[in-house]
């Protein structure tokens, strides 16, 4: 059994793909998302004052898809990796710029997708990505943030249910899809010996180096990083794990 920590709409897609490969998977709820209410015309007007719109997660993509055809045509859409670009295109038919190698803030910077001389609106949730915020400030890049939702650690608020899911002896691995989710999982482990013990035993499957680094700093060594953040890369990684277990 593999636990998927993505927000549920995206997790369901991956779970179905894994089950088509005869790999059992289950949704693990770590994060609760509370959306903020916006007056749509004001939101559209604010976005259109910038040259670039950075969509920081699939949750942001889901939120903004109904507005995309109302945004100015010259607005450049940016996402954090190929997986998000594919998700956006599959959902809306709209293309976005993304790093050709890897995914995340560091990759956006090295791909020169965040630079001086233009303006960026960062669409995401609270709390902000500290690495991105620091880079924008230090380099005096014209930018703004628009907070569409608030993230909270729902797993720690429902610890008994979280323990029941994570500590199931059938679990072979946990697919951890963001640094925030890795942090929430570590927070649970700090107060639950059962979860801590399980995290040291199962495969921790991560999608980019930032997640790997966060888990490594927490003392975990049983980490496997996928080639990229796509569903196919996750499936390939799990296939390899399953072949080695046979």
How does the SSE layout of this entry go?
Layout: E1 2-4, H1 8-20, E2 25-27, E3 31-35, H2 40-47, E4 52-55, H3 58-64, E5 76-79, H4 82-92, H5 105-110, E6 119-126, H6 130-138, E7 142-153, H7 154-157, H8 159-166, E8 173-176, H9 179-191, H10 193-201, E9 203-206, H11 209-217, E10 223-225, H12 231-245
Parallel strand pairs: 1-2, 1-8, 4-5, 4-6, 6-7, 8-9, 9-10
Antiparallel strand pairs: 3-7
Structure description:
It is built from 12 helices and 10 strands. With 246 residues, it is an alpha/beta fold. The mean pLDDT is 92.
Primary descriptors:
5-stranded mixed β-sheet; 12 helices; globular; alpha/beta; 246 residues
Summarize the structure.
The chain has 246 residues and is an alpha/beta fold. The protein is built from 12 helices and 10 strands.
């Amino acid at each position: 059994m593999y636990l998927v920590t993505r927000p549920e709409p995206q997790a369901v897609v991956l779970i179905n793909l894994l089950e088509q490969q005869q790999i059992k998977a289950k949704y693990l709820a770590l994060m609760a998302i509370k959306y903020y209410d916006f007056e749509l015309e004001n939101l559209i007007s604010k976005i259109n004052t910038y040259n670039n719109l950075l969509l920081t997660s699939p949750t942001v993509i889901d939120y903004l898809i109904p507005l995309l055809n109302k945004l100015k045509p010259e607005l450049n859409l940016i996402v954090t990796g190929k997986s998000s670009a594919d998700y956006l295109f599959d959902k809306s038919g709209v293309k976005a710029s993304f790093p050709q190698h890897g995914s995340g803030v560091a990759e956006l910077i090295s791909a020169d997708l965040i630079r001086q001389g233009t303006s960026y609106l960062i669409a995401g949730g609270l709390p902000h990505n500290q690495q991105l915020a620091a880079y924008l400030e230090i380099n005096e890049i014209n930018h703004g943030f628009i907070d569409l939702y608030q993230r909270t650690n729902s797993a720690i608020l429902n610890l008994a249910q979280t323990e029941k899911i994570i500590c199931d002896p059938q679990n072979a691995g946990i697919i951890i899809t963001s640094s925030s989710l890795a942090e929430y999982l570590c927070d649970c482990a700090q107060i639950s010996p059962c979860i801590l013990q399980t995290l040291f035993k199962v495969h921790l499957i991560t999608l980019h180096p930032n997640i790997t680094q966060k888990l490594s700093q927490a003392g975990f060594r049983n980490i496997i990083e996928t080639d990229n953040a796509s569903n196919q890369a996750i499936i390939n990684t799990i296939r390899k794990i399953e072949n080695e277990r046979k």
